[in-house]
Design brief:
57 residues; mainly alpha; globular; CopG
């Protein structure tokens, strides 16, 4: 079960707007995941994967 409360102090909030088309692609990818992550978590995963791939090239 997820903890409810204040976010970790070692994080920063990032607010952005995304097109409906991009959100649909993110939601589609979320549904392919076994745990169906939140949009926020899916975006974190996508960014982490991209950064890891970039560092390996």
């Amino acid at each position: 079960m997820k903890k409810i409360g204040r976010p970790k102090t070692d994080t920063s909030a990032v607010t952005l707007r995304l097109s409906n088309d991009l959100l649909e692609q993110i939601d589609s990818e979320r549904r392919c995941q076994g745990d169906i992550p939140t949009r926020q978590e899916m975006i974190r995963r996508i960014l982490a994967d991209w950064l890891e791939q970039k560092s390996q090239s």
